[in-house]
Each structure stands twice: as structure tokens, then as C-alpha cells.
Write a structure and sequence with these properties.
- The longest helix has 69 residues, at 2-70.
- The chain has 8 helices and 10 strands.
- It has 287 residues and is an alpha+beta fold.
- Helix content is 44%, strand content 27%.
């Protein structure tokens, strides 16, 4: 009887030790998982800021190049003489060298004098950045370009199923020798199906990145299982970001992979949310 009691007591102690060990192991695993996830959030946020820095840097480069074009003697002389053919050739050369999707020169009333690809005339005075440029400002920003404008620049086929085009744009004032405004230069890069920016970011900081027009991916380095890019796909997690204007950090499934992702709103020159930037690390790397 005493031996049986002792055996039972030892058995209970062993079970208790095992349970305490398992509880400690589970607790340690939970704490470790929480710490890893917190570390992952910090890393993803840092890398997302780096990706957004690439976007800002490209926008600043566009601004400088447009301002440089507006200050050139060739543009000034062509505007003063309305030599559209000569101006169109110069714009095509400049756009190709700068990697622009389009460059347009307008007169002092906003009427189109020449386009990069010799498109139709018309007016671009209603473009917000152009109207500011005609008042003497050099401005830049992210914008949604209308189907009509994209057609005039022969860019409508690049936007796929989207109704508008997401672009990095800039506009600068052209002045004569006396400093009077005689027109404006308007140019930029259409981001739809444009992969240089996201690929450059991925090579530099790793992970995967994307740009969204509204809640739809228009450019990304995210890969599908077959190696193709994830593009023209909707990101459900972006809806809350578009509505609130606040970033999202958390899990997101894209291309068959679960990422720890950060989604930041993209604002136009007037502070309106027009899209989002997306950066993610595979969750398997975090956990």
C-alpha cells in the first residue's frame, strides 16, 4: 500500500513536471513568436519607408528634369516661334533620355504646342500642375491621369483594365528673356506596367514592392508561383488605407504567398488619396 502510494506520488510529480515544462515551452514559443512578429513589423516598416523613398527620389528627379527642359533655349525659341515640329523632335529626344512616358509643351494659355509623340493638340490648362506652372510655379506630385489625356499621349494601351493611369508628374514655367511667362512644360512617368522602380527597390532592399492605382496593383515585383508578376490584381487590404488615409501593417496574401506587409497611402498634390504603395516580406522569413 505504501509502495503504491509512493509510486502514485512520483507519477503525479513527473506529470506535473512534464506539464510545467510543456507550459513553459508553449509560453516561450508564444513570447518568441510575438517578439519575432514585432521585430518583423519594425523591419517591414523600415523597408517600406525605404521603398517610399525610392518613389520620392524618382519624383524629385522628374521635377528637376522638367524644370531643366523648361529652362532650355531650344524650348523657349520653339515656343516663341510656334515651331511644333522642331519642338516635338526635341521633346522625344529629351523624354527618351530621361525615361519619361510623356513630355508636353503648352503655350501661355495652356494650349498644346507640341507633344512627345506628335499627338493631337487641344489644351492642358485644366491639369492642376500645369495651371500652377503657368502662374510661375514648378510643381510635382502623384496623379491619376484621365483616359482622354492618356489617349492624346498614346498611352491608353499601357493602363490595361484601369480607367485612369497612376503617374509621377511635374510641370514648370517657361519664360522669355524678360521673365514673362510664355508657356509650360509638363511631363512624367506613367506607373502602370512600369517596373523599373519596383525592380530597383527590390534589388536594393529585398522583399517585394508594388504600386496601386486605388486598390489595384499596377506595378509590382511580387511573383506568382509560375514566376510571372502579380499585376492588375486587387488588394483587399488596401481598401481601409484608401478610406482612412492611414497605413496598414499586417498579413496579406499575394501571389500565393503570405506576406507581412505595409501599405501606405499615396497622395496627390491636393492631399487626396489616389493609390497606395505596398511592401512586404514573406511571413516564413519572419516566423
Amino acid at each position: 500500500m505504501r509502495l503504491s502510494l509512493r509510486t502514485s506520488l512520483i507519477g503525479a510529480i513527473v506529470v506535473a513536471v512534464i506539464l510545467i515544462f510543456l507550459a513553459s515551452l508553449l509560453s516561450a514559443r508564444i513570447v518568441l513568436g510575438h517578439d519575432l512578429f514585432a521585430l518583423g513589423r519594425t523591419e517591414v516598416t523600415s523597408q517600406a519607408n525605404a521603398f517610399n523613398g525610392y518613389v520620392s527620389s524618382r519624383l524629385q528627379q522628374i521635377r528637376l528634369l522638367v524644370a531643366e527642359e523648361a529652362a532650355s533655349d531650344a524650348v523657349r525659341r520653339a515656343l516663341q516661334t510656334h515651331n511644333a515640329d522642331r519642338l516635338s523632335d526635341a521633346l522625344s529626344t529629351a523624354a527618351g533620355a530621361a525615361g519619361f512616358s510623356f513630355l508636353t509643351v503648352a503655350g501661355e494659355g495652356g494650349e498644346v504646342i507640341a507633344r512627345t509623340y506628335a499627338g493631337p493638340g487641344g489644351s492642358i490648362a485644366s491639369q492642376p500642375l500645369v495651371s500652377k506652372a503657368l502662374l510661375g510655379e514648378t510643381t510635382s506630385g502623384i496623379a491619376l491621369l484621365s483616359p482622354a489625356f492618356l489617349r492624346s499621349e498614346n498611352l491608353n494601351l499601357q493602363i490595361g483594365n484601369q480607367k485612369q493611369g497612376l503617374a509621377l508628374i511635374a510641370a514648370a514655367c517657361v519664360t522669355d528673356r524678360q521673365g514673362r511667362t510664355i508657356g509650360a512644360v509638363y511631363g512624367g512617368v506613367l506607373l502602370n506596367h512600369y517596373y523599373d522602380l519596383v525592380d530597383e527597390a527590390t534589388r536594393a532592399i529585398g522583399g517585394a514592392s508594388a504600386l496601386l492605382d486605388g486598390d489595384t496593383i499596377v506595378s509590382s515585383s511580387i511573383q506568382n508561383p509560375d514566376g510571372t508578376r502579380v499585376v492588375d490584381a486587387r488588394v483587399a487590404r488596401a481598401d481601409a488605407v484608401l478610406q482612412s488615409g492611414q497605413p496598414y501593417v499586417g498579413a496579406d496574401d499575394e501571389g500565393g504567398v503570405t506576406y507581412l506587409a505595409r501599405i501606405d497611402p499615396l497622395l496627390d498634390a491636393n492631399g487626396h488619396v489616389v493609390g497606395a504603395s505596398w511592401y512586404g516580406l514573406p511571413m516564413s522569413q519572419i516566423t
